[in-house]
Give the backbone structure.
Amino acid sequence: MKPFALIGVALAAVFSACGGNESPKASAGTFEAADKFAISDLQTRWHEANSTKNLDLVMSLFADDAVMTIGGQHYSGKDQIRNFITTKSGPFQPQNHWTSLHPAFKVRITSVEDRGTIHFECHYVDVPTQAFKSSVAADGKVARIKDKWLFTSFVASNATLS
């Protein structure tokens, strides 16, 4: 028998001893942790998009029928959200060169099956002057849609610095 064939036979014996064709079972806690990590990634990508003025990235975070509420104004669906971001959102204005800082200790996430919530803050700093510009708190409802976590509701307000 050739050496590679012997390795194959040995591996087959090892794998069959480990339970055959049965796949390992993950605990519910493992899935919950994975979901919370994926939801947390939404705010990471949000900050990246705001810091780099990446409109496609920020829009990829929203469900098609998402609702964004800022200053009492509601923007429904991706077209209205895109319009708000390109015309009114401070980080996306061409004259602003802001970076978005996010205190990780203020992030709060929940998840139950295919739904969840996230709270996070954005602290915007002007890169050239290093001056503080704005602080925003975001409360989002999220859903797993086609195996991807997306914002379905996004409410922004002034954050209280503490």
